[in-house]
C-alpha cells in the first residue's frame, strides 16, 4: 500500500505562487506515475500535471507555462510549483499514484485546498 500526504496549500492573491508537496510512504514510488489533480466546487476532477518514472511530464492546458511538476525519487516525494496563480486555479488539489500502463490511479491523497483571491 502507498499512502500519499499533500501539504502546502493555502490562500494566495492572484499572481502569486504556491508550492505543493506530496510525500509517499509505505513503499517507494520511483517506478510509479505521479500526478496532481484538482477539483473545484461543482466541477469535475481534472488532471493538472503528471510525471512518469523517466521524468517525462504532461500538463493540463490551463496550467501550461505556469505550473511545474517535479519528483524526488530519493525522498519519495513529488511537488507542484505554481506561479501566476489565477482565481480559477482555486480547488482542492490531490496527489495520486499509479503503475505505468494502467489507466486508473490507485492511490490518492486526502487533498489540500488552494484558494486564489482576486
Topology:
Blueprint: E1 3-7, E2 10-13, E3 18-25, E4 33-39, E5 46-51, E6 57-59, E7 67-72, E8 77-82, E9 91-98, E10 107-108, E11 112-117
Parallel strand pairs: 2-11
Antiparallel strand pairs: 1-3, 3-8, 4-5, 4-9, 5-6, 7-8, 9-10, 9-11
How would you describe the overall organization of this protein?
- It is built from no helices and eleven strands.
- Strands 2, 4, 5, 6, 9, 10 and 11 form a seven-stranded mixed sheet that branches. A four-stranded antiparallel sheet has the order 1-3-8-7, with no helix packed on it.
- Strand 4 and strand 5 form a beta hairpin.
- The N and C termini lie far apart (about 40 Å).
The amount of beta strand, in percent, is over 45%
In total, the number of strands is 11
Report low-confidence residues grouped into runs of 5 or more. none
Over the alpha carbons, how many angstroms does the gyration radius reach?
A: 13 Å
Mean pLDDT: 97
**Content-based structural category:** mainly beta
SS summary, helix count: 0
Global geometry: globular
Order of helix and strand elements from N to C terminus = EEEEEEEEEEE
- Helical amount among residues, as a percent range? under 10%
Termini separation (Å)?
40 Å
Largest sheet: 7 strands, mixed
